[in-house]
Amino acid sequence: VEGGWAEDGKGESIWDWFGQQGHVHMNQTANVACDSYHKIDYDVYLLRGLQSKLYKFSISWPRIFPTGIRNSFSPQGVNYYNKLINRLLDSNIEPMVTLFHWDLPQTLQDLGGWQNESIIDTFADYADFCFATFGDRVKFWITFHEPWVISYAGYGTGQHPPGITDPGVASYKVAHSIIKAHAKAWHLYDDRYRSQQHGKVGIVLNSDWAEPKTPTSSEDVKAAERYMHFMLGWFAHPIFVNGDYPDILKSQIQQKNQQCSIPVAILPSFSEEEKSIVKGTADFFGLSHYTSRLISTAVNDTCIPAYENVVNFSQHVDPSWPQTASSWIRVVPWGLRRLLKFVSQEYTGTRIPIYIAGNGVPTEDGGDVINDTKRMDYFRLYINEALKAIKLDAVDVQTYIARSLIDGFEGPMGYSQLFGLHHVNFEDGNRQRTPKESAYFFSSVIENNGFPKELLYAHLPFLFIYPSFPSLMPCWLMLLGWIY
């Protein structure tokens, strides 16, 4: 949303480079985007109109360190975030700050990016600066937003920058570096800042819900379980369980490699010391979720490193699941409730809360962008499932964050996918913002802190208890209450 891609000395990010090389829909770029770099006061005004209690935004690493390292410090970039944070607090809106939402300084990518382990210390130094500079006012920190996307789309399929297609080696190496960088930043905050600043540090992991295509098929149930442990457990298991990758992930890769003449995937390993450093490095479980999949086993003997081949699954959709403007998002609200139950029993229990840190659906540019009734329906259904998870399943969910305040630059899709509660006219040099119907709806949800109880029990789906998923237990207790 920021724009100002080279303003006040900001360095080039890998997304700046990616867009300017023509890799985005219709050759669009984030050079100006929503121009939020010049519209802090107006965007905070929109948040006040929503009666928002919290605003999740990210710091652009190359805006404050143009070359990625501290000696390139930009005071103008720091002033921008100081102003934003102060305006939010003046409006009684809590800032939740993400340190890394994909926009790596291009100069660091030129040195190997997340494949070069030296970046772990470089990221920790960047995090240290942010904690020291903004931590007196910021009490919620996210180290990485959706590292699965960084690893899979940036280094596996190449659909995101840096555009590397190496799913068997680079994806796993990058994930390994990110996990260690996250842990180092968490310990740094814990050792140096927590006692004075009293904040919390976590990570946001994205995950679909994997539903067995044929619930009575043990092979499909196992494939769905593998899907969950490869997508979510890849990062969640080391951080929230025991400092190491899930056994199912390690054994599946080993099994696939044994079937082939050369390894199709190389999963790095943590030393015992690294395991102890990584384990328990989160004060909350940040979760983003948008859709669900039907999963079945794909019996094949191919020796290619593609993610689907290594995990040995195929994915499907139920034709009854409503389509959206996004090719990958279907409306499957009950998947969120099942995912929250899975996360609670597999990773968090009663130890730490879950923060839903990203949920929403886009509309297409060119349609009726103001009367977005389908988005309102999506929010209503998904928020209702979050309430069920809290009140029927006793899952400790403490935030729900909608994606997003305003339409923005959506990666390879550019401005063709509109996720905002407010429409941004990207043809207008002033980037005019206009509230959509969903903005008024979401404001009422915030004002009422949830829904009337009648909606809570509407559309309660039958919950199949997967024999192979020990974390999914009966969810039939009927409790009353409101979202926290």
Structure description:
It is built from 18 helices and 14 strands. Residues 459-484 have low confidence and may be disordered. It has helices at 14-20, 40-50, 61-64, 75-90, 106-109, 119-134, 147-155, 170-192, 194-197, 218-231, 233-242, 247-259, 272-278, 307-311, 334-348, 373-391, 437-448, 453-456, and strands at residues 54-58, 94-100, 140-145, 200-206, 209-212, 285-288, 292-296, 314-316, 354-359, 363-364, 397-402, 417-418, 422-424, 433-435. The chain has a domain at 1-206: Glycosidases (TIM Barrel, Alpha-Beta Barrel), CATH 3.20.20. Helix 6 packs parallel to helix 8 (170-192), helix 15 (334-348) packs parallel to helix 16 (373-391) and helix 16 packs parallel to helix 17 (437-448). Helices cover 40% and strands 13% of the residues. The longest helix is centred in the middle third of the chain and has 23 residues, at 170-192.
Largest sheet: spatial strand order: 1-2-3-4-6-9-11
Strand content: 5-15%
Could you say which overall geometry the principal axes of the C-alpha atoms support?
A: globular
Q: Count the DSSP helices.
A: 18
Structural class: alpha/beta
CATH class of one domain: Alpha Beta
How widely separated are the two ends?
Answer: 29 Å
Q: What's the β-strand tally?
A: 14
How would you classify the quaternary structure?
single chain
**Uncertain regions spanning at least 5 consecutive residues:** 459-484
Q: In the CATH scheme, what's the topology name of one domain?
A: TIM Barrel
Q: Rg, please? A: 22 Å
CATH architecture of one domain: Alpha-Beta Barrel
CATH homologous superfamily identity of one domain: Glycosidases
Helix percent band: 25-40%
Give the averaged pLDDT, no decimals: 93
Biggest sheet record: 7 strands, parallel
Organism: Terrapene triunguis
Subunit structure: Homodimer.
Protein name: Lactase
Family: Belongs to the glycosyl hydrolase 1 family.
